[in-house]
Amino acid sequence: PDWVVWRARPESELLEPLRNARHYALGWAGAMVVVVSSALLVLLWWLLRPLTLLQRRSQHLFDGALAPDIGWPGASGEIGALERVLQQVATQRAEWETLNSQLLGRLGLVLSAAPVGIVFTQDDRFELVSAELCRMFARSEASFLQQPLHVIFALWEDFEVFSEQKRLAFQTDQTYVGDWQMVRADGTRFWARLRCKPVDLGNLALGSIWTVVDVEKQKSVLEQLEWSATHDVLTGLTNRQVLQQRAQRLV
User: Fold this and answer.
1) Is the pLDDT assigned to residue 176 strictly greater than 90?
2) Which of 8, 65, 71, 243 is the least buried, fewest Cβ under 10 Å from its Cβ?
């Protein structure tokens, strides 16, 4: 009974079950992590899919590639609320574009049928011109657009005086009216009457609207009438009235 029996065994053999149990536990834990992570990724993808679709649809919000009621994910919750807002914006944009298209079409008809030259200017450049203005100056519409306004004036000095007079008229809330000598594309000159008014008196940076009328014939007739009123038709000399006026100034 007092004897003690010892049995010697390798440490690796004793620890083998523990190692196997640890590897087994780690394997199951890794598998669970993979499964749970995959499930979470799938869940996140499913939850974020409406947001991704909404982002893709929003990229075509202003290009008109899709109809306002097509391509929306049909989500719920906060994403659904955002979707409804964006869909409303797209619908309103389509309505505004339709209205703007109609207005531009009517404006084009006005510009093509107007018997006087019409100009929309901004930053001292031509933004929009009518068909009559192109005919009046013997220019194409493309040669007018984005060109500086002084190209139609016969003299640069005239344009400077005109700009100052127009500025003063706009500052006093008045429509500018004046006659100036213009130049056509072929270099010929003629007299034209300009009538200018700002698009918005509160914001002159929005530009102005011009109407241009060829008054070359009226100028010639007026000059002829003025000449006939002060000269003798037979001799071409000034008449008695002019003689008295000039004599009075001299005296």
Assistant:
1) yes
2) 8
Encode the chain in three state secondary structure: CCCCCCCCCCHHHHHHHHHHHHHHHHHHHHHHHHHHHHHHHHHHHHHHHHHHHHHHHHCCCCCCCCCCCCCCCCCCHHHHHHHHHHHHHHHHHHHHHHHHHHHHHHHHHHHHHCCCEEEEEECCEEEEECHHHHHHHCCCHHHHCCCEHHHHECCHHHHHHHHHHHHHHHHCCCCEEEEEEEECCCCCEEEEEEEEEECCCCCHHHCEEEEEEECHHHHHHHHHHHHHHHECCCCCCECHHHHHHHHHHHC
CA–CA distances in Å: residue 228 to residues 6, 217, 235, 245, 249: 151, 16, 11, 16, 22
Give 32-71 pLDDT, tens digit per residue.
999 999 999 998 888 778 888 888 788 777 777 778 778 7
d(C-alpha 38, C-alpha 167), whole Å: 71
Q: From the CA atom positions of the chain, what is the Rg in Å? A: 43
User: Residue 69 to residues 48, 99, 175: CA-CA distances in angstroms?
Assistant: 21, 18, 47
**CA gap 131, 143 in Å, rounded:** 13
Largest CA-CA distance found in the chain, in angstroms, rounded: 170
